[in-house]
């Protein structure tokens, strides 16, 4: 093979690799913010909670920025809570403090993803382009945070006594004790543990979710707020075993009448921009999804043991469908009910395993 041919072959390979990388990048950029945030979460996470703060601000008509007062932020959060938009956030208790002293808060974040595992918990937030990370680091220095040491990205605030925020009675959430920035991705990460936070920063681009979790994320579209669980976590956190003995007995009878119920591989409950709530459950195969679409729609149409009353008191059940291995359920909340905050914790009959 001549030298010229070799050069041409090498050039072709380089172009092919470049095209592939561009294609991968385009696919990544095509993800919703929700899907992107899920992919950034630690690989060992079992529970994820999402809040699209830019969407929440639009929903309540809030016009806030970095100069807004803690009182204005608290008013915004009160309105948002009344509309069941913020039950998934890990930052609401510290929002006034964050706004006053950290330079960012739910008033300015584009979105927040909170994930938990048996090893730790971390908040990932998307900062607006208008915020300068150097200014945010200066804020941490002023608060008394220790800057990152060699080979670390973590600012340590474990010895800091947090100031009060404009007379606010809000509590300080331990999850903001340690802070890290990823400027090129406009991210801020916080945690209550230095090692777990550094691990989260180091593995931001691992980009892998369990199959069952990825399926329910894909089925959830672009929610304002959402709770997502791995199968194992859902089958524990939402289990009827958390209910009292009478409710457990009632639930067992209802499940027996409903038909086949299989364990879920992933579970999501998402509050949609128009006000509805979408539930997504992934299963081992399509046959299970079809069977569970029937059984779980029956369970979601009757009594709500462990929650008291009936599900009809909380929502009108809309379309239930099996698509591939995933069942989706449309819940239309009754006026005044807080479906996401009420039903995203157990026990929950139609999520039973």
Keywords:
single chain; alpha+beta; 2 domains; 11-stranded antiparallel β-sheet; 12 helices; disordered N terminus; DUF3352 domain-containing protein
SSE diagram, text form:
Elements: H1 3-29, H2 33-40, E1 47-51, H3 53-60, H4 70-82, H5 95-102, E2 111-116, E3 121-126, H6 133-143, E4 154-156, E5 178-182, E6 187-191, H7 194-202, H8 211-218, E7 225-230, H9 231-237, H10 245-258, E8 266-271, E9 277-282, H11 286-299, E10 315-323, E11 326-333, H12 339-343
Helix pairs in contact: 4-5
Summarize the structure in short.
With 353 residues, this protein is of the alpha+beta class. It is built from twelve helices and eleven strands.
Fold and architecture overview:
This protein has about 350 residues and is α+β, with helices and mostly antiparallel strands. The chain contains twelve helices and eleven strands. It folds into two domains: about 30-205, no CATH class; about 210-350, no CATH class. The protein has helices at about 5-30, 35-40, 55-60, 70-80, 95-100, 135-145, 195-200, 210-220, 230-235, 245-260, 285-300, 340-345, and strands spanning about 45-50, 110-115, 120-125, 155, 180, 185-190, 225-230, 265-270, 275-280, 315-325, 325-335. α4 (about 70-80) runs antiparallel to α5 (about 95-100). The radius of gyration is 23 Å and the shape is globular. The chain starts with a helix and ends in a 10-residue tail after the last helix.
